[in-house]
Amino acid sequence: MQFGTPKRAPAQPPLMPWALEIQAVSSVEPSNLVRMLSGAILGCGGWVLTRSTTDSGRVSILFEFERAACVEIYTAVIACGVELTRNGHIRMTELCHCTRNQLSECGAQIASIELEIQTSPLKIAGSSAPGGNLPEQTR
C-alpha cells in the first residue's frame, strides 16, 4: 500500500498546439477573396485544406503551414484585404513571437488556421438609401 498523492501520468503535449480559429471581416468580393487568399497561402508554402463561401458572404478557409513561415502567412492574409479581429491579431502575434524565440525547436512544426471571414462589400452595405450611410456634412 502506498500513501501520499497518487502519481499522475506525464501530460501529453497536444497534437497541434497552434490550431487557431480566427474571425475577420473584408470588403473584398467573396470569390475574389478565396482566390487571392488561396494563392497567397500557397505562395508562402502553406496548404489549403478546405475553402467555402455562403450566400450571405461568409468565407471559410482552413489551411496549414510550417511555423517558420508564420510571419509571411500573417502578412499575406492582411495583404489580401482581410481585417482580423483584435483577438485574431493577438493570436497571430503570439504565434509569430513564440516561433521566432524557438525557431530551431519548432520551425518545422505545423500550425493550422481556420479563418472565418464575413464579407460585406461597401457598395452593398451603404446602398439602402440615396447617398448611402454617409454623414450629412459629406454628402
Which descriptors would you attach to this protein?
139 residues; alpha+beta; 5 strands; single chain; disordered C terminus
Folded structure, characterized:
This protein has 139 residues and is of the alpha+beta class. It contains 5 helices and 5 strands. It has a 5-stranded mixed sheet. The longest helix has 16 residues, at 86-101. The protein is globular, with a radius of gyration of 20 Å.
Strand content: 25-35%
Count up the helices: 5
Estimate the global geometry from the Cα principal axes: globular
Largest sheet: 5 strands, mixed
Helix share, percent = 25-40%
Q: Mean pLDDT, rounded to whole units?
A: 83
Helix-strand pattern: EHEEHEHHEH
- Termini separation comes to 84 Å
Structural class: alpha+beta
Biggest sheet strand order reads 2-3-5-1-4
DSSP E strands, number: 5
Global Rg: 20 Å
Low-confidence stretches: 122-139
